[in-house]
Amino acid sequence: MKYRAVKGTRDLLPPESERFAAAEGIAREVFSSYGYGEVRTPVLEATELFARSVGETTDIVHKEMYTFPDRKGRSLTMRPENTAGVVRALIEKGLQDMPRPIRLWYCGEQFRYEQPQKGRYREFRQIGAELLGIPGPEADAELLLMLFDFLRRLGFADLSVTLNCVPSRDGRQRFAEAVRAHVSPQADRLGTDDRRRLEENPLRLFDSKDAQTRGILEGAPTSPEFLDDSARAHYERLKQLLSIMKIPFTENPSLVRGLDYYTVTVFEVVSRGLGAQDAVLGGGRYDNLIGDLGGPDMPAIGFAIGEDRLLDVAPADPRPLREVFFVVPFSKEQLAYALEVARRIRRHDPAAVVDTDLSGRGFKKGFARAAQVLEDSSGPYPFRVSEVRVISLGPEEEARGTLKIKALSTRVEESVNLSSFERGPGR
Ligand code: HAM
């Protein structure tokens, strides 16, 4: 093979691509029902945007971005996440004049130069949502409620959200210094990466996957010790709201998340199906980001789900169950009639999927293929196949204008007039 997909990227073909589309369709349905509209932003952004938002010293910006100069020498980056782009787009459109709250969702490709492994890719997809303009914990609660509605629709029954509250500004500074003071005496036990973290941004030590570093961090100060009264009250009220709404959560005072823009609420959902360190999704408040990027002072909260990971661990195929028509001509002689029959069925029911055997290989092979589709749902369809109705067309059927329709799973056969597929929606 001469050409292969670039390392860390992958092709999605049916039915896998249809599973992704189905999950995105469910996201659209659930998020729309909360008043969200879809936003699409460019894959390419100015590199500076991510340095300012995600943070210069984070792993993402420091070593995972696809960054290159364009032909005019401007530094561009293929987005490693979508929050910065959404905020940039809103500021550019005049965020200060928009009615609040602003509720937006998105799905799309993100790029991070990581070591590929199961559930970790260099090109991966996220489904995310951002809620801007509401400072109170009710916004956090609504967002998490929506997230759990979505996860439940996908069949997840036993997920719980890991929650923490992180200080902003002064508190964050004191927290970082306290972590540095705790770790510094053992600095010579740290690897090069973690030594850099200790120097530049000690809170990023919490992102370390090094067992030695994690050991040193045990007993380190945790973020709740540095919260001010308002963050503390916000967090307490949020936990009350989640209990009222029966959203299962656990607290993890060491959770800080790997991006610098978070303030107050942070959360992740980890699934047992993934490796110990890997989250299906993450999110939190970013009350200072919009102002920091040159917009008005406006609080916001959001999350992003790793769609590839989500589908890896989803308990069920998200595609709905539906039936498909298989039109099988007896020979090449009936191909034109087959096309006409298929058209009539589609006109009669615009939602029907009608798959025509264009090869004209005859009944035996046509039925065999239909049986295979019913058995392993191997078709390219946006649904799982509940039933295949095979319409066999021989010279006799063509002459009489009738159709022989056989339901493969029930083996019930009927003969109907083509004219019964009248034009018009519905049966
Ligand atoms: P994040 O935690 O960096 O947050 O990414 C969110 C999710 O994307 C992760 O939990 C994971 O499921 C998925 N993900 C990350 N890297 C990879 C990878 N290399 N391969 C496969 N999946 C991956 C954000 O991106 C924030 N923008 C979330 C957010 C939105 N916060 C506020 N609003």
Walk me through the structure.
The chain is of the alpha+beta class and 427 residues long. Helices cover 36% and strands 23% of the residues. It has 14 helices and 16 strands. It has helices spanning 16-33, 47-55, 59-63, 83-93, 137-153, 169-183, 192-200, 211-217, 229-244, 289-292, 307-313, 335-348, 363-376, 395-400, and strands spanning 37-38, 44-46, 66-69, 75-78, 102-111, 123-132, 161-166, 249-251, 263-270, 279-285, 300-306, 321-329, 354-356, 384-393, 402-407, 413-417. The strands form 3 sheets. An 8-stranded mixed β-sheet has the order 1-5-6-11-10-9-7-8. A 5-stranded mixed β-sheet has the order 13-12-14-15-16, with helices on both faces. α1 runs antiparallel to α5. It is elongated, with a radius of gyration of 27 Å. The relative contact order is 0.12. The model has no long low-confidence stretch (mean pLDDT 94).
Write a concise keyword list for the protein shown above.
alpha+beta, eight-stranded mixed beta sheet, five-stranded mixed beta sheet, 16 strands, 36% helix, binds histidyl-adenosine monophosphate
Summary?
The chain has 427 residues and is α+β, with helices and mostly antiparallel strands.
